[in-house]
Amino acid sequence: MTVWSAPQVDYMQEYGYLRVGDGKQKDDKCGQFMGHVGCLREDLHRLITLDGVNHSCKVFIRRVYHSCDRPECPVCFRRWAIKQADRVEHQFKPFYVKFGCPEHIIVSCPVSDYGLPYEKLKVKALKAAKARGFLGGFMIFHAQRYHRANETYFGESAHWFYAPHFHFLGFLDGGYGACRGCKKSKLECWNCSGFEGLTRRLNLTDGYIVKVKGARKTVFGTAYYQLNHATIIYGKVRSHVGSWVGVCSYTKHKLVAGERKKKRVCPLCGHDLVPVKYVGLGDPLDVQWWVEEFEDDLYDSGGSVKWIEAPKARGHYE
Length: 318
Known about the structure:
single chain; alpha+beta; 2 domains; 5-stranded antiparallel β-sheet
């Protein structure tokens, strides 16, 4: 049995790899609370949604924080990941009709390829995925995996270790439905024409381990989690954390100008969000700090207005 050992070369440093959020903060305003935007059209919120929630007399409020939108920033990287995941989910929508729901596919590079630079790893990983029926989608590079405390031996500390792999959100030729929940034996699986049989046979020749995870609940959630600890090449001009490939590549599907900037709209009535100001009693920030969007009563118990529309200061919410 081959025993895995950590590479003797620090490839993270050699190739300039940096995990998202591990850089330096360059803007003192990063993460600073800037105010609120919201929708005060209470007259359009008098409805009960399918989840049984009554939104009557409620206004929609969103907190605004300053973000440099740099993936390496230790303060802003999570908000950067949220924006990127939202774009990924949005760009996938035109493909659902033709290809169905995207799958989450992990392509792990063999140890023999650990010393290759990113561009060569990307080419080989994409080739391995396509050989197994991958049609296209969004690919994210991870140079490291996370080893949890006591995962192998008691007393071990948690740490990151070098193990390059790629996460693909995309489509498989024929889908993965035939293999998901299949009860065939290992021998039957080996001889099967489905994805699992194919990837096992190809592993003998290319050394790549390719797995398909469970059915996706949300594309946004998967993209956000993977972007949250992805790898960037620090210092490289126009270094992208993710790439659109195959049938979803930039040349196959181009967004029109109006689609690139997503408007901030009220989820209840669809109206644009505008700068708002809290004029009620108490502190609206009493809501848990991690809650960036919430609903509040337009009037307090005495009938006084709690939220009013405020003029937008120049550069205040950008």
